[in-house]
Amino acid sequence: FKGGDTCEYLLSSGRFLGEKVWQPHSCMMHKYKNSEARNCLIDKHVVFIGDSRIRQLFYSFIKLINPQVKEEGIKHGNIPFEDESASIKVDFLWYPEVNGSMRQRIKSWTESSAAKPHIIVVGAATWSIKIHNGSNEALAQYKINITSIAPLLEKLAINSDVYWVLQDPVYEDMLSESRKMITNEKIDAYNEAAVRILNSSSRNSKAKVKVFSVSKLIAQETIMKSADGLHLPESSRDTNAMILMNVYCNKIMKPIDGSCCQPQPPLTLIQKIAFCFFTLSIIGYLIISLIHRNNYRKNKSCTDLESGEEKKPSISAPNVSTLEMLLHCFCKLGLIMTYFYLCDRANLFMKENKFYTHSSFFIPIVYILVLGVFYTENTKETKVLNREQTDEWKGWMQLVILIYHISGASTFLPVYMHIRVLVAAYLFQTGYGHFSYFWIKGDFGVYRVCQVLFRLNFLVVVLCVVMDRPYQFYYFVPLVTVWFMIIYATLAVWPQIVQKNTNGNCLWHFGLLLKLTCLLTCIYFLSYSQGAFEKIFSFWPLSKCFELNGNVYEWWFRWKLDRYVVFHGMLFAFVYLALQKRQMISEGKGDPLFSNRVSNVLLFISIVSFLTYSIWASSCKNKTECNELHPSVSVVQILAFILIRNIPGYVRSVYSSFFAWFGKISLELFICQYHIWLAADTKGILVLIPGYPMFNVLVSTFIFVCVAHEISQITNDLAQIVVPKDNSTLLKRLLCVAGFFSGLHFFSAMQDQSRH
């Protein structure tokens, strides 16, 4: 940690990812849309002063505000631009040399009582080199002129943002005869003079003229693509304009994926309370540990001198051990949440933008598949979708999704469509698993509901508090939570139809199918009635959970994207359990699921269906159109995979313990990646070790997986304490939970009021 200003890094250092994506050192650059640029620069006056290179930067800058602008201004004259709708004024002033004329213009702003420009961008040198044939006298005069201008710029910098653009290198082989005297050696001499003189007299940090030197680095990589050897190609000057926009606008607009030039957000009231709570938990745990250690020493086994027998220490009271376990969990959780905060809220660790290449996605995929196959073991049971198999399925899907996120593969549509199937498969398992449990066990008690809700939501609730994010931000957990409640309500509502009361009576099966039909009708209605959906989830307190950026549209979009797949999971579970009950499938070790002929036919159809879906997904041209079809067709590949994985007996009898291990902590992996593996709320990549991308990924991944595993253990331990089996104790705990959320709502309201 160098303690440097990310604005300085943005203005002075970076590298290209690929050919066109610029990555500043240590921070993320936001790509501003036209509407965002206008909102940032509303009522602002921006001035560009200099030669033809600055004019290029001026045009790229105003195209961020209005992309329809054409470069039709006078070449050697002033060019005005104004966006009346946002009261934005941007001027280009033609001053190709640092001389008395430029000084007089800058001086007029310092002496005038009128409003000064909010942003001033200055730069010139190549004309001086060209006109004076690169003479040393011209360089000496340049130093004198810039020395006289520097105090004026520093005076303007007290209230305005002033940038001095260093001269870009040229491609000498392409320069015309009239420009041959403009050499990179001369340009370096002029740049050195400018850097040395600017800010030399300034002691006030607010009065610093910001040196825009990053343009030099960009030009070094791209100047060979120049049309004349002097002026930058369009993509490079667009990058410079975007950097300029980030430097000024990030602190105003505060984009999530624009960490450059953003100050660390202040701690909220709820975050301060959480910090105090975890601190007290750590102190409490240390005190209890010391007390227990002292008691252990006093009661330590010792030999009775008369009888020769050992005296055993007395056992601690159960309530003390429960308290110690609770404090131990919160102590570990507090340390982990501190790491979360430091990674993604404090400006301690670096963050970088994602950049997709096919190799960055497919090579890790091949690597983990080889590892997964290497760790193959026999299953304890050979039923369809047994526990080891579902853990394995969750595990490899989660690893693929993680690679998808860190590689930025969402920009590649075929990969995106296949990842959508993996997310749908998670929800399919939700429908299958919970339906199977309620159907077989018939347990609709409060304990079961509370256990599931706690395990699903505990980590997300803690992160909402610590990271100051809304519940809907972690969209997958609200999704599986709501679907669990829908499954529960569908099966628990009268008449409760479970396996034990359907024996030999098809009417009960018909009743259950009627329930499922009603559920499908409701899903269909809500998916095509956005207004009705939004009304349901806009009521308090649901609105507090499902709103994001002031509305529930994002929640409706997420729900709609996989609206049928949970129903498909429930229906598959019903059909499978009915076939199993009637002994119509063979689940013995090594036996095919059906007769050889039927198994071969189904296997062939499954493979063809699986490949057909992949071909369709790979030929997708439009994400919107494909997303419309996805809810109805994703089940094809899911069912095809299940049949391919389970029809051959030898395939069903083995599983990958490597994938299964990750599957057991898949939910924690999915949530933790937001802040301690990725960065800026999944928009970027966390950088613990700068300069070594592969080593950085290895270290951050190791920590990330360990933390996810530890949180899974903490959640399981706390679930035993917070959700006890005894109904009276459970009721008391539920009242405590209700009190916690009431307090959270109260402090949240206070927080919102103070912000407004």
TrEMBL record:
It is an enzyme of class 2 (transferase). It is a multi-pass membrane protein. Its EC number is 2.3.1.45. GO terms for molecular function: N-acetylneuraminate 9-O-acetyltransferase activity. GO terms for biological process: carbohydrate metabolic process. It is found in: Golgi apparatus membrane. Keywords: Acyltransferase, Glycoprotein, Golgi apparatus, Membrane, Transferase, Transmembrane, Transmembrane helix. Residues 22-72 form the NXPE C-terminal domain. GO terms for cellular component: Golgi membrane. The chain crosses the membrane at residues 269-291, 355-375, 395-416, 446-466, 473-495, 507-526, 561-579, 599-617, 629-647, 659-680, 692-711. It comes from the Eukaryota. The keyword Glycoprotein applies. The keyword Repressor does not apply. It catalyses: CMP-N-acetyl-beta-neuraminate + acetyl-CoA = CMP-N-acetyl-9-O-acetyl-beta-neuraminate + CoA; a ganglioside GD3 (d18:1(4E)) + acetyl-CoA = a ganglioside Ac-O-7-GD3(d18:1(4E)) + CoA; CMP-N-acetyl-beta-neuraminate + acetyl-CoA = CMP-N-acetyl-7-O-acetyl-beta-neuraminate + CoA. Residues 253-734 form the Cas1p 10 TM acyl transferase domain. Belongs to the PC-esterase family. CASD1 subfamily. This is N-acetylneuraminate (7)9-O-acetyltransferase. The lineage of its organism: Eukaryota, Metazoa, Chordata, Craniata, Vertebrata.
